[in-house]
Fold this sequence. Notes:
Residues 121-131 have low confidence and may be disordered. The protein is elongated, with a radius of gyration of 32 Å. The protein has 11 helices and no strands. The protein is mainly alpha-helical and 191 residues long. Helices cover 69% and strands 0% of the residues.
Amino acid sequence: MKDTEKTIKSEAELIQQIKEGDDEALINLCQLYKPLINKIKNIYHVRYYDNQDWEQDAMIICHESAIGFDLNKGKFSSYYKTRLTNHARSLVRYDNAYRRQALKQSISLETAKKNHILPLNKSFASMPEIPLSENIAILTARLSDLEINALLVGLGIKEQEDVINNLKISQLTLARARSRLVQKMRQTLLN
């Protein structure tokens, strides 16, 4: 018997043993396809996936493939390769999805500290110079200086005590300005 016939026979035996619940046969079948697993792992790079993750996924796919494979139809190697490749492509698609781009661009706090990158302090925030819409432009034109300060306090840009001390007003005056601000916002933005 040739080596390929032995491999096919032992492969078929392993698949049958896996269908019967033999875990050792699964490990042996995965060892048989180790070069294929390594090739796919080297082709498809998935962020945060290490060798253990690839081996675990390859073993799960191998088990599912063996359970679902019909020994009378085709070659197991082609079936397994297709399933493993499709799984790798799905992982890459998931990793590269648009909504996950922010995750790729983010860095850990430890990295930020090491590179002397400080997080943004809310005191650096400022009101946009160009209004986002006509309604906002109309609203800001209708606000008094006191109401603008009440808005800045509400947004967390200014501290309430600082506004009270700088404008020399009472807390009640600031609360009334906030109330007028809310009414003007409702009139302007909701109409």
